[in-house]
Write a structure and sequence with these properties.
137 residues; mainly alpha; MDM2; two-stranded antiparallel sheet; 8 helices; 2 strands; 4% strand; globular
Amino acid sequence: MATAKKAAKKPAAKKPAAKKPAAKKPAAKKPAAKKAPAKKPAAKKAAAKKPAAKRKPNAAFMKPMTPSALLAAVVGAIPLPRTEVTKKIWAYIKKNNLQNALNKRLIDADEKLRAVFGGKKQVSMFEMTKLVSNHLK
């Protein structure tokens, strides 16, 4: 049994010898080494993006604004920041099932929202924010 263990060790010793020809290949990888420094600036860009994720919200969006009488019927009469107004409008839309079933980006206005949207029966979610901003002071 002891000889069987020694025989098992000898092939293991031969395996590193087989790797020696593979050691010549890293010499061919020198052009790949030039590509590695190009990756380092990309890593710096990723590091630069991390502080951007911790940015502060714009004070203009956080300033409480008074909704018009038409918009107050949907979101309430108390002054709210633009972000909260948008959240409340979306809550109203989802509560009353006003999103178009075929295209979720479209909003089918009911009577309250039609007044806010300038009489339009259907608006896109992107147009909605523009129309709502006309009702904030």
